[in-house]
User: Fold this.
Amino acid sequence: MDKLRVINAKTSNRDYKILINPGLCAQVPEILEDTLRGFEKIYLITDITILSIYKDTINEFLEKCGKPYRIFTLKQGEEQKNIDNVKKIYEDMLDFNLHRNDIVIAFGGGVVGDIAAFAASTFHRGIKLLQFPTTLVAQVDSSIGGKTAVNINNVKNAAGTFYQPHLIIIDPLFLNTLPEREIINGMAEVIKYGAVFNKNILPDLKKVAVSFKSGSLLKSIVSDIRFYEIIYKCCRLKAMAVKKDEYDTGFRNLLNFGHTFGHALEKETGLDLLNHGQAVAYGMLMAADASIMLNIAKAGLKKKLTDIYMLLKIPEKLPLNVFCQSINKTGNNGNKQISRDLAAAGTVQSMSFDKKFSSKSNKFILLRDTGRPVFVYNPDRDILIEAIKNNITGE
Ligand code: ADP
Ligand code: ZN
Assistant:
């Protein structure tokens, strides 16, 4: 990527720019002056890990803006996305005398992005919001599209708003410090875009992956200039889906490919054993198997996915013991081993509570091929069980 990429995101409430370029962080003061004119203060929300790595960088660009600023630091982790922290943020914003024309910067991953956007969308009924995503998940997915959220009593994203940001700045250089686990998390979303929309994303990713022989493959990929173009493609697809269906009632559901299975796997195994990206990665394989078993797709579809998993060293089979361990932890079944049948049945059961399901019909996103998604309602339960079991390994 040799020049600044600009996506003009259009929504019913607001049109805004998504800017993508390595090193963009250094230009934040000029960009803010150009695009969000008239602000007097900056309120930046981040988390403790990001601050420990990027304290100097953050202070430097805030100083250069030449306006009063304040930094609110969350502890790290999904459980910080709670309403108590929102209250703390509101109180701190009041104390700082933040006004509607001032700016909130969400500087971090999905957790920071969701809670900061929730606070920005509600404080004084909506304050200017800049999303500055620093994880791959946030750069290609969660920072775009205006969904804000907090968890309530362990129910993920139980409360939230639709509130489009005023600007998104994506600097892929921040991915250089991202732990491998977090890269896989985002890579699953990248693969999802390739599976659902094609746009040569999987072949492009393959080209980048095969060019590295040694070292940490995923880290090498996300620091490669060719990968920045893939990020750009994903952002364009997300912005397109949001433009078509801002409130996620139809077309935007396509971005949920692999997620109906994935969300159920997350529920059945526990977050510490399987993160969102890993769950979605297995979920996409299950959706591919279901597509093939229902004669919607040819057998080659699964191979298109597993080829890229193999290259990126993303596991293709979900070990059965992640289900057993979670049951042990909750104490429901003591130390009882569960079978693949039971694990699959539990996962199907969990799907009925997925928010994409209406009470009348179970809606799945399946594929005829990469780039050819279809909605399938109420697929046969036995096929779902088989599709899940196919991708679980162990006795
Ligand atoms: P996600 O973006 O995957 O939804 P989080 O917001 O929880 O999730 O971020 C995942 C973890 O990565 C957090 O511990 C966060 O502090 C850390 N993190 C975020 N951005 C970076 C970065 N650029 N370098 C290193 N760690 C980061
Ligand atoms: Zn996802």
